[in-house]
TrEMBL record, chain A:
Superkingdom in the source lineage: Eukaryota
GO biological process: one example: DNA repair
Domain AAA+ ATPase as annotated: residue spans: 34-190
UniProt keyword terms in alphabetical order: DNA replication, Hydrolase, Nucleus
Record's protein name: Replication factor C subunit 5
SUPFAM superfamilies assigned: P-loop containing nucleoside triphosphate hydrolases, post-AAA+ oligomerization domain-like
Lineage of producing organism: Eukaryota, Fungi, Dikarya, Basidiomycota, Agaricomycotina
Keyword Nucleotide-binding (UniProt): no
InterPro entries for this protein: AAA+_ATPase, DNA_pol3_clamp-load_cplx_C, DNA_Rep/Repair_Clamp_Loader, P-loop_NTPase
From TrEMBL, chain B:
Domain AAA+ ATPase: 54-191
Database matches in PANTHER family: REPLICATION FACTOR C / DNA POLYMERASE III GAMMA-TAU SUBUNIT, REPLICATION FACTOR C SUBUNIT 4
Keywords: ATP-binding, DNA replication, Nucleotide-binding, Nucleus
Subcellular localization, as worded in the UniProt entry: Nucleus
Protein family per UniProt: Belongs to the activator 1 small subunits family.
Annotated organism of origin: Sistotremastrum niveocremeum HHB9708
CDD domains xref list: AAA, HLD_clamp_RFC
UniProt xrefs under Pfam families: AAA, RCF1-5-like_lid, Rep_fac_C
GO biological process: DNA repair; DNA strand elongation involved in DNA replication
SMART domains on file: AAA
Record-given protein name: Replication factor C
From TrEMBL, chain C:
Gene3D superfamilies in alphabetical order: P-loop containing nucleotide triphosphate hydrolases (3.40.50.300)
Keyword Protein transport among record annotations: no
Family classification: Belongs to the rad17/RAD24 family.
Protein name: Rad17-domain-containing protein
SUPFAM superfamilies noted in UniProt: P-loop containing nucleoside triphosphate hydrolases
Coiled coil: none
Segment forming the signal sequence: 1-19
Domain Checkpoint protein RAD24-like helical bundle: 344-455
Keyword Protease attached: no
Main location: nucleus
Highest classification ranks of the organism: Eukaryota, Fungi, Dikarya, Basidiomycota, Agaricomycotina
Amino acid sequence: MSLWVDKYRPRTLDSLHYHAELTARLRALASSGDFPHMLFFGPSGAGKKTRVACTLRELFGPGVEKIKIDQRVFMTPSKRKLDVNIVQSNFHIEITPSDVGMYDRVVIQEILKEIAQTQQVDLNAKQRFKVVVISEADSLSRDAQAALRRTMEKYMSNMRIILCANSTSTLIAPIKSRCLLIRVAAPNEDEMSRCLNEVAKKERFDLPPSAAQEIIQDSNGNLRKALLVLETLKMQSPDLTGPLTIAKPDWETYCHKLADMILQEQTPQRVLDVRTKLYELLAHCIPPDVIIKTISNRLVDNVAEPLKADVIHWAAFYQVRMRLGSKKIFHLEAWVIKVMSLYKHFFYDVDLTGDFED
Amino acid sequence: MFLKPQTKKPEAAKHTVDPALQPWVEKYRPKTIDDISSQDHTVAVLRKTLQSTNLPHLLFYGPPGTGKTSTILALARQLYGPANFRNRVLELNASDERGIAIVRDKIKNFARQTPRAATASADGQVYPCPPYKIIILDEADSMTQDAQGALRRIMETYARITRFCLVCNYVTRIIEPLASRCSKFRFKPLESTSTLSRLSYISSEEHVGVSNEVLQTLVDASGGDLRRSITYLQSASRLAASTQPPTPITSVDVLEIAGVVPDHVILKFASRLGIEPSGDTMDIDMSTQKTGFDSIREEVRLLVREGYSGTQILSQLHDLTIMHPTLTSRQKARCALVFAETDKAFCDGGDEELWVLETALRVHKALAA
Amino acid sequence: MLLSKLIYGLFMVVQFLAPLDVKPKDVKGKGKEKAATPSFRIDSQTDDTLWVDIHAPQSEEDLAVHKKKINDVRNWLLEARDGGANGTLKKYRRILVLTGPAGVGKTATVRVLAKQCGFAISEWRNASEEFYEGMDIDWESVSQKFDAFLNRALYQSVLVRSEPSNGSSSSQSGPSKQIVLVEDMPNILHPGTQSAFHASLVAFLDSPPVTPLIIIVSDSGLRGESREGPPWHKEVFDVRTILPPALLQSPYITQISFNPIASTLMRKALQKIVQAEVSSGGSQMPSKEDMDMMIESSNGDIRSALMALQFASVINKGSKEPVKKRTRKGKNLTVAIEAITRREQSLALFHLLGKILYNKRKGDPPNASSSQKDREKEAEAWAQIKDPTPLPDYLAGHNRAASKVDIEKIYADASVDSSLFSLYLHQNYVQFCDNVDQCGDVSEWLSCVDASGEHWWQHANPYRFHLVSLGVLHSLPSPVTRRSQKLYKPEFFDELKKSRECETAMVDLRDWLDRESLGENSDPDGIPRRVGGWTRDAVVTELGGLLNARLSLEGMSYMTLSPGKAELMELPMIGRGAPFATQWLRMPFSWTAGTGGAHGREIEDDGDIAVPHIPSAEEMLFTRRTAAKEKDDDEGGWLEGDDIDEY
């Protein structure tokens, strides 16, 4: 199954569609022979990984696309065996911390040490170093980050690290200061429309500007999402004309219904109903942060102006609680009830909205 | 095959870094404690210990990039000289396994060895070479409580032949019994003049053409962290050198490397929240009108789409607010509270978009009140 | 494991009670066989063996299992042998899966009935211990061994490999038929082993029907790890783990679930054994009360009841004092049995929840049903308790009457840790609130305590239990409105299990996408692989729409996609061999509206009904799928299904 978003992804720096300045910079770095550790950051779907892939190709040539997957066994400190699929080429290796869960430190340490002790075998290799790509670096545990910290300096001679993250807030300062920061902003509307049209051209159909506009509005700067939506739409109504409705994903509709339930009724019974729904969302692996953001976005569209800031305030408050605690449902539920309570009082009696201030 | 270590080529290029590729942070680490920037008091005390060659257990703490590790390494080098450095000094940091088992084995084993007789120095210089070893525990605040507890005993038992130096950012994360056994040295954030002089020294050594104005930007962007500013300088010079033809480093480059949000973006954002660019008297009615919830949300959304990091936005907004000429102290105090809470949230894993929005709304409210 | 704990418990108590009589030789009892040998040797010869082994059922009459279940198993065995009434059923009787809690006689039933039907048992033994000690055997070898074993069993239909394990199963002479019994699984929680195991089963079904296979699964429940972990960290161990999803509905597989043993049946069985012991000399008949207590506290686990019984007789036997002193010992016995069974703990949790949630305070209106005398008594008791000093005006909203709950006492008695306790409170608090504001206060406390003290450099907050209890007490209305609230077990673990399943399916889908693009990679103009592959979040939140659209182009929706079918079909739009993709898509959202607080399973404090199995202190978040013990009629009858009624 090939998705357009995978099929038409640019493979070389030359074929990238936007951020020309950044592209020039990457090309310069790749050819300088003095390639630093790098940290790519920016919103989801902005093209970070695409740029990483292109940079790798620029560094090593097409050989870097010859990938193999090995299963490796790691031993955790508690003597537990850990199977991890490791994706690698002759020139680079990829690690996704979320696949290893709480044992990311062990895996990263092992892999980095091994690479550091290995010389490049391929005599034709253009570079003397290998690259370790750590995607979703923002989910690295503190332990793993601490382990990375010194290793990055120590093994500079035959290894470079490329980190990929949506947000840099969770990365510790020593890591950030050891990397060249590469910010990949989301494409603007023109750039997105160019990319969409490019894909349409390759698929040999015309993309009506109205449809493109619709998709761009829906995707909020996330090019990956835009391309997925384009393909879905094309599949559902091949001519892409007339009024298009972009179907929301199930989970999003679900979140919206949930938001509406919160505003319809504020009773203990409703609390139980909402809890069931929240459990359902969690059971479908929808990230709790996404749940709280989606519901609050829907809520602020439907409450009176003075309440909006409060909805956001408590969403932010309980979002952090979720990170600190272990039982997501407690915090989601506490937030929902808070909103119910605020909403009820806003309409029926005293104004409680100021209670978080000062 | 990629992962299998090569057949043992003993000591072949054992992490010897090509000096051209070496991080400047390492390359320009101070060689003697007199080279340490800005920590006069600490250096004065340590110089005394160098003369008397008696050293207490040490605890260095302070913000990152203030020279803690550099100081102890320079001190040890001056005490032992290159010949004895290897067998007298053990350096462990957080990337080494440092659980309780390691404390019990590796650290204890090293601690209880009687120091070997000092070998004559090859470079002809005379080093004090006192009859004890030094164990440096870098990033000691990331050691577990258990491991720290185990350390306590070792410190007492082998105090005669082994001195410890704990290096950390947060002294509060060192358990009290350990901290009380050490002489504590606090490392202050560097003054901008000393950072500046160090940077210009490095840039002249490396033949990097860089104006004073750019250096000043570097210092501002790194907030007293010398390591950060040196790293930025190196990255910037890399970028500048790799373009064809090579261009001089500009302030814009530096800001981009440091991830700083451009001033005009922050100013626009701030004015949405009711912080007028400067000078003018605040027109609260006006600002409330054009700063409804939706417009703030839209502004935040655009900011996040640009990919700026939340912490960076926060710190720049903070500087802007606190230094603002016309906001009242009460307004600033309210804002400061908001910034503090948001900073904590970011440390605890707060979602960037949500928290930038939250900060914006609350700052807006604080200023309108 | 339960067994060894029990034995250890026995030992401690015995040492405590009768230090002069007992000379332990080996304190560590492990597993059935080992545990039997050391122990307390007093005077009789038979004492060195556990009654559990001596009195293992030899015939159908000995089985304390309900008739219906016995018949089910027998019919299956007979059909597997002869093909049922018209001889056609034989090919469907390939795999029998027996599920149920531990100690309800699953294995015993199989052994007895197999013997009766003329089957010889060939049993799979796991080398799991070597594996866990970190020897150089990796999981593959274990699962390969299993595969080899199955194959061997298949083709050696005549050769008998059964080694009589503990004297109970003896192969008949010249058995015509063989049956394979798998009780000890390979380490199935490991995904690699699991898929290998599943593959073995599928291969087994594909091969010609020679030897039937019986798999016995003791529901060990789920060790609820509330922190997210990697998928192999899941500790769910039930029939869904063991059988591949495609096979769950397969006609070749029969599932029979065993329920906890009904008390009448258990009493009969125990009495028979006691009688045998008494007549063989030495043992004394335990009192009826003791017997009742043992039966009740065993939660339908006959093995545990038998252990308790043997223990009781040991104590009684040891006492040669006059009658007067015996009664004291009798009391000790009660204490001892309570100590080794979990009854007290379970009750404690129930009372604990009640105490907190009913939030009784001074000045509550008296219970309508209480007598005048009781009321007076209560008033007297209350008079002794001082009112708290009123709070200053600005805190007046927090004034509460003196509470009847002594938090320190509760804490001392509590058998659960704060984390599990908070889950129970969370499940139940809403029914006790009158409005959302009260709900809000309670939930804020739960949230606050859950978020406190999780960081690695801090000590965990030691006051969590106090905080959560006091916080909830403070927030609940006073008095609590009585609306015949029922207490439920937390849904949390079921949901956690569901999300683990979903996560596994999602990761499978992602890996499959990865491999797909890798396969096309050999072509230089093919699709470049996504660096780092798809992220989980992107798969969950963005990919669903497109996959569904593609599926619907295939003329079906994921709602109608039947399990088992998708794996076999070729879906040109999705790609070949995309079982994972479809499995994930087959997890639609449930839209059913909640109905009251009744999503959890009810806990009841009724003499006849078993209280949920509550974890011991060292097993932090351990819940166990507990079946309620249905009210037994004279026949010891069963209600179908081992789940507690969903209300």
